[in-house]
Amino acid sequence: MTTLRPADAGDSESILLLTRSEPLFTPEEVETVEELLTDYLTSPDHNGYSFLVAEDGGRLLGFACFGPRPLTKGTFDLYWLCVASSARRQGVGRALVTRAEDEVRKQRGRLMVIETSGRPEYSATRAFYERLGYTMAAAVPEFYGPGDDLILYTRKVTP
Amino acid sequence: MTTLRPADAGDSESILLLTRSEPLFTPEEVETVEELLTDYLTSPDHNGYSFLVAEDGGRLLGFACFGPRPLTKGTFDLYWLCVASSARRQGVGRALVTRAEDEVRKQRGRLMVIETSGRPEYSATRAFYERLGYTMAAAVPEFYGPGDDLILYTRKVTP
Q1: Chain A: nearest CA to B70, how far in angstroms?
Q2: Pick from A28, A139, A141: CB nearest B71
Q3: From B151's CA, which of A54, A120, A140, B140 has a CA 20 to 30 Å away?
Q4: How far apart are CA A95 and CA A93, in angstroms?
Q5: Interface predicted TM-score (ipTM) of this complex, two decimals
Q6: How many CB pairs under 8 A join A and B?
């Protein structure tokens, strides 16, 4: 049975292993997840970031990282979402996003923002967010790099 | 005569005074400028940020802050631009943006991004960027807060 809970220090190693095994992530992206995770685990207020994990009998199935967007009122970013390849198509990603939205609502958030890539490798990712009710609010050509557009999704999370 | 140059520790006080006197900036925004300026002045690599100042005979007319956007290839953000109210309509803002673009080009940047607000108070700001050749690439409703849209401008800076 899948359990969702906030990440703790004991999850650190398996979160990093999962991140490093995701072929879509660049080395710079892996490093960013590592930095955010260290911040989350070592700062008393988690530097504003939250990590959630999904696990089954002690095995990490996936994680989500989200937090308030600086200089906004009530806008949160879903910064990272990763599900183990062996655990896909079982609702783990959906459960993580739904739980993150619940947490944002508790923190009086209004809007969840997800920034992802327009590259073909991310088409399944984009379809996934669209199934969850996210709307493409912007597409910025060449934002991430040549031939790599930013696709920005939003979803209202107010009750 | 207006001189443009990288900011140094001697500019710190006048940059902060100018920032605090800008009615469009919220207290949280002023605090963010202070943090970036401290990073810029105290880190050997300026944490990636650059501050430029425009001055005339030792008087600060304005400043710009820009830097690479994390997790992109060659995209830079113009994070902050501020011109003293007494020095407006004299080309100071345009000179700062042009110089920032030159610096980005030297750092092999491709794209300059400017994020600003869709509120009526920012209409002169938006018109200014449009005059400088910036194109509105995205408008995200309610991004900054209720009734406060994100307007994202981009301009290619490749030669």
Answers
A1: 9
A2: A28
A3: A120
A4: 5
A5: 0.92
A6: 69
